[in-house]
Amino acid sequence: MKKKQFVSVFIAFVMVLAGCKDNEMGPLVTNGDKPGAISNVRVENIAGGAKITYTLPSDEDVLYVLAEYPSTAGGTRITKASSYTNYVVLDGFADTQPREVTLYVVNRSENRSEPVSVAIQPLKANLHFVFESLQVRETFGGVNATFTNEKEGEYIFYTMTKDEGGSWVPYDRLYTNSKNRDYSVRGLASEPTEFAFFFTDKWQNSSDTLFASLTPLFETQLDKALWKHHPLPGDTYIPEFDSWRIQNLWDGTTANIFYVKPNLEGLVLPNWFTIDLGQEAKFSRIRVNQLSHHDSWMFASGAPRVFEIYGSNDPPSDGSWNNWTLLSTYESQKPSGSPLGSLTNEDRAVAIAGEDFTFPIDIDSYRYIRFKTNRTYGGNTNVMISELTFWGQPMN
């Protein structure tokens, strides 16, 4: 009797388990029945696309809604929306031409409903607003571009020049999704040059092209072999370790770093250090490489955020600010603008490459510089930098 009871319980358990598996796996067989079509369709045209809202049919096995429509580049695109939503968003249009969209309900057997067609007319794409904000100008060693990307879309910014045969070829390209960008292309000769600038998006759409004839301003990188530390009273330059000394700032590599000892008595911001460049020069720009060895140091800790550069040809030995001239005040710009501790790939790329800061074109020439840090990204009083580089016009 007990054996029969055990067998009955076991059979019941197996049946329950099988029922659970059926629920997890969904239907085990397919059918040819079409699901019902969507209804109450409404269209909201948006920048570069449209949002189509609808009511789903009552069928229990609805899987998704499929939208078919012509793409900007030709051919057909497909966008799917889950059955857990009541709308589908179509994007990636570069123009405002009307288009027909065909929508189907698809069930778990991959059967399509009867088609429902609607007309959309995308509004002006953000790609074109970004292009309209573009401004270019000559700068030292190249050209400078500024633009605004309010929607923080993903774009590639192209700088084109002509080859020896007169054909346009890419000279530089920048991937960006920053809201505001100030970007310079360097390494160009100081001679009249024809440029073309445009943007592309992730759907391979292109903006209009801005053509300009510009003459980059002459500059050359100052010889770091001539640099040496010029310690003065009041300067802050004592490193955390001997291997993290100030001379690493001009050793030609970002692998070595200058890391001020964090527990120095009276260490506050602002603080500064002094360098003898070994020659008098009219400065064009400075590149600051922050520590980029790992994420925790990029746009964080003691990386300078707001700093000033002073110049002198006769720095007083008492460390005072007599005979020093403020050349400019700068603020480092994190491309994403995200909070401390958050980084995008664009942020990392800028941290690794270093940030360039341009001097006013009308400054005098100087031999000694003072780097004064007013604010760091993490609020740390101990400044952390891996490399400094100056460009300009040597006087001798």
From TrEMBL:
UniProt-recorded name of the protein: F5/8 type C domain-containing protein
SUPFAM superfamilies xref list: Galactose-binding domain-like
Superkingdom in the source lineage: Bacteria
Organism whose genome encodes this protein: Parapedobacter composti
Record-linked InterPro entries: DUF4959, DUF5000, DUF5126, FA58C, Galactose-bd-like_sf
Pfam families assigned: DUF4959 (PF16323), DUF5000 (PF16391), DUF5126 (PF17166)
F5/8 type C domain residues: 270-393
